[in-house]
Write a structure and sequence with these properties.
The structure holds 2 protein chains of 2 kinds. Chain A is mainly alpha-helical. Chain A is built from 12 helices and 2 strands, in the order αββααααααααααα. Chain A has one domain: Orthogonal Bundle (MetI-like fold), CATH 1.10.3720.10. Helices cover 73% and strands 2% of the residues of chain A. Chain A has a two-stranded antiparallel ribbon. Chain A is globular, with a radius of gyration of 23 Å. The two termini of chain A are 34 Å apart. In chain A, 28% of the residues are buried. Chain B is an alpha/beta fold. Chain B folds into 2 domains: 180 residues, D-Maltodextrin-Binding Protein, domain 2, CATH 3.40.190; 150 residues, Periplasmic binding protein-like II (D-Maltodextrin-Binding Protein, domain 2, 3-Layer(aba) Sandwich). Chain B is built from 12 helices and 11 strands. In chain B, strands 1, 2, 3, 4, 7, 8, 9, 10 and 11 form a 9-stranded mixed sheet that branches. A two-stranded parallel sheet of chain B has the order 5-6. Chain B is globular, with a radius of gyration of 24 Å. The chains are: A mainly alpha, B alpha/beta. Chains A and B meet through helix 11 of A and helix 3, helix 7 and helix 12 of B.
């Protein structure tokens, strides 16, 4: 029976692996092949093998600036998500209130709405003569947040925060509360117990949550388009612009690959932010 | 193992099960694939072309909703297949020209589409049936702008500092309008770039969609812009304080219509649908609900819509894009727009 086990394992893993290969690896391979093709106005895409699309990206300042903006927005949102999500997740994990389920529901409620619809809500708030502007008008000032970086960050934050809270909450739930009690029993103050006991244990989970938010931010599309407007440039809208407006599929494919590679690289590097002894 | 069903029994059973579908298809309407935009345009196609005219001919559309360029890309990508994925594709004239150049479109002649004989001069092409058209005009808020703008160059006038705006999606037509002012032709993009750079420096507002270009006139964010006459009529009907001014240098024409790919699976239905689209009743329906002008000489507008869409006297110079040039210049202009005008 023991000898048959690897075969059985292969049988169990086979279907899922095949689906992943078919649904993820194959399209990626096709996309990569397209990124090596050449664009033509009439033919749209001419089969060849050239690195011109990648060279174009790395030799033009414009594209570097778009990538920089994308990373800055994604990183800012990730940091804000940690700052805002951490206390909320901690409170949710430790509360014994009978309203805990309701509180959890409130956190995930925004996920019930599509991100585009949610963004339209922000547009109503941010628009000139919108809700915020009208309230500010009562105090003799104006709030014109529409088509600004701040609007994009707030919008993306609202999309990512529930993911962050849910992940962190489960991380904190997994840390035994008796460890804190033990630390306090040995003379640590509550804050010292948190930072010296809970925080190191939670750090890998916090990092994963931040990475999740970062990845979502790097690939944000609807929010930058609707709240940032045509002048706000991020990578995902740029991929779509090249694909849809310019019909330049090879360059669009190269942009998609660069975005993926950058996200993977930064995600891998972020692992070094966690001290080795605390890594999962 | 005992044989429960013989092969013959199974075949007979399958035949019986399939019979209703086979009988139904013999009597059902003939379907064709219609590649079109969604929203109001698709709804009005259904209300003005399909339900009242095309369905009586026994044809019904299966709608493939997408943006224009993915639709074009789909036709181009499948052009070598014997059987294409679309029978009728709705595209702008600029795209139709490029596709015709690539040799992927069926010619539309009066023997295939009788109503094509009534198409107004300058709007159609060999492989393109124009559906709607509208001149590009200068839009302004009549409550705040007492003397309407007279030329495109006024958008760079400091008196409109931070009060100029239009939808970003119309960038290529705006470039042609700038060229028309600067050179008298629609294709001098060097001069157009100079003028647009000045307009941009005057605090140009760009909006992410055509619909988003109307409310800023109401909120006071902008006072002047560039738009289609058709859209002005729609905005006026929606209560937005906006009016149209015809630039003295003339107007670039927006022309949109339909094409049939060479490998369309059901060309007969495609031709019948396009013929229905060119019927006067269908054309007038679009003018009344969407503000676009009829493309056939047989359709005459009356009443409120005729007044809203009337040309001034004398009629301004109306200039369709020079398709041979525009289709080649598009990638360069698009790239420049992205990196210069959009990029702050």
């Amino acid at each position: 029976m023991r000898q048959k086990l690897p075969l059985a394992a292969a049988g169990l893993l086979g279907p899922a692996t095949s689906v992943v290969v078919l649904m993820l690896a194959a399209p990626l391979a096709l996309l990569f092949r397209d990124s090596l093709n050449r664009f033509d106005v009439t033919e749209l895409m001419i089969e060849t093998v050239t690195a011109a699309n990648y060279t174009r990206f790395f030799t033009e300042t414009f594209y570097w600036e778009v990538l920089r903006t994308t990373i800055l927005v994604a990183a800012t949102v990730a940091v804000l998500c940690v700052a805002l999500g951490l206390p909320l997740a901690w409170r949710l994990a430790r509360t014994t209130s009978r309203w805990k389920s309701l509180m959890m529901l409130l956190v995930i409620l925004p996920l019930f709405i599509g991100s585009t619809v949610r963004t339209v809500g922000w547009m109503i708030l941010f628009a000139r003569n919108g809700m915020m502007d009208s309230v500010a008008g009562l105090f003799g000032t104006r709030v014109d947040l529409m088509y600004t970086t701040t609007a994009v960050i707030i919008g993306t934050l609202s999309v990512n925060l529930p993911f962050m809270v849910l992940t962190l909450q489960s991380v904190f739930e997994g840390i035994d509360d008796r460890l804190t009690e033990a630390a306090q029993g040995l003379g640590a103050t509550p804050s010292r117990a948190f930072w010296r006991v809970v925080w190191p244990l939670a750090l890998p989970g916090v990092m994963i949550s931040a990475i999740l938010s970062f990845i979502l931010g790097m690939n944000a599309y609807a929010t930058p388009v609707l709240l940032g407007g045509p002048r706000f440039q991020m990578m995902a809208p740029l991929v779509f612009w090249e694909f849809n407006t310019n019909s330049n599929w090879p360059f669009s494919a190269a942009l998609a690959f660069i975005l993926m590679a950058t996200t993977l690289l930064l995600t891998s590097l972020s692992n070094f932010l966690v001290p080795r002894r605390y890594r999962a | 193992m005992p044989e429960v069903f013989s092969r013959r029994t199974l075949l007979a059973g399958a035949g019986l099960l399939a019979a209703p579908a086979l009988i139904r298809s013999a009597h059902a309407e003939e379907t064709f694939i219609l590649g079109t935009w969604g929203g109001d345009y698709q709804r009005l196609q259904m209300e003005n072309i399909e339900k009242p005219i095309a369905s009586k001919l026994g044809i019904a559309s299966v709608v493939d909703v997408a943006d224009e360029l993915p639709r074009v890309a789909k036709i181009m990508a499948s052009r070598r297949l014997p059987r294409g994925q679309m029978d009728v594709a709705c595209v702008q004239a600029v795209q139709a020209y490029s596709m015709a150049e690539a040799g992927v479109l069926e010619e539309l002649t009066p023997d295939k589409v009788p109503n094509i004989a009534h198409v107004k001069a300058g709007l159609g092409m060999t492989c393109f049936a124009p559906h709607i058209w509208s001149p590009q005009i200068l839009s302004y808020n009549p409550e705040r702008v007492k003397s309407p703008p007279t030329s495109f160059a006024e958008l760079a006038d400091p008196k409109y500092k931070d009060k100029v705006g239009f939808p970003d999606v119309n960038y290529f037509y705006v470039m042609m309008a700038a060229s028309l002012y600067a050179s008298g032709t629609s294709t001098d993009f060097v001069k157009a770039k100079e003028l647009l750079t000045k307009v941009n420096a005057n605090g140009l507002h760009l909006y992410p969609s055509t619909d988003a270009g109307g409310p800023p006139f109401k909120s006071g964010e902008i006072d002047v812009g560039v738009m289609w006459l058709a859209r002005i009529a729609m905005w006026q009907n929606a209560g937005i304080p906006v009016a149209a001014a015809f630039p003295k240098e003339g107007c670039i024409l927006y022309v949109s219509g339909m094409v049939v790919p060479k490998n369309a699976p059901n060309k007969k239905a495609a031709f019948a649908y396009i013929n229905a689209m060119l019927e006067p009743a269908a054309q007038i329906g679009f003018a009344e609900h969407m503000g676009y002008l009829p493309t056939v000489t047989t359709a005459t507008l009356t009443g409120k819509v005729a007044k809203q869409l009337a040309m001034p006297d004398p009629e301004p110079k109306l200039m369709p894009p020079d398709f041979a040039v525009t289709s080649k210049a598009l990638p360069d202009v698009t790239d420049w727009w992205k990196k210069t005008i959009q990029h702050v």
